[in-house]
Specification:
alpha/beta; Rossmann fold; four-stranded parallel beta sheet; 42% helix; protein phosphatase
Length: 163
Amino acid sequence: MTYRVCFVCTGNICRSPMAESVFRARVAEAGLEGLVEVDSAGTGGWHEGDGADPRTVTVLENGGYDGAHTARRFRPSWFSRLDLVIALDAGHLAALRRLAPTAQDAEKVRLLRSYDPAASGDLDVPDPYYGGMDGFEECLEMVEAASEGLLAVVRENVEGRAA
């Protein structure tokens, strides 16, 4: 049975596509392709059908990740097929929990940086959209740092299902 993870930010052109690409690479490195499905979406639909922000693509490709992406809006109906919904900041966390059809679905929503053992205090991945390239690079560092911890949790769940 496939384990499904969806990363969610505001418009699905900066943070969540970055997290999707990085985590997909971690899943492949771990040999979990075919067992884990990774995607992303935005809380709003302003950029539906657009590619990722060019700065996101540049930072991803410079880091050795895939920059291909098409933005879309998160739909509450997706909760039924998702195992984890990963919010990039506290605002997304609250919005997604409000959208959740059931309390069980709301429990699927987690903050990405909660999986980074070195993170403390503010667990938001700041929106780099209105800044320069340094914000996108910082975003990538935060996403990479949290991805290892998230992978450990996902691997444990996948192996638990197989047992």
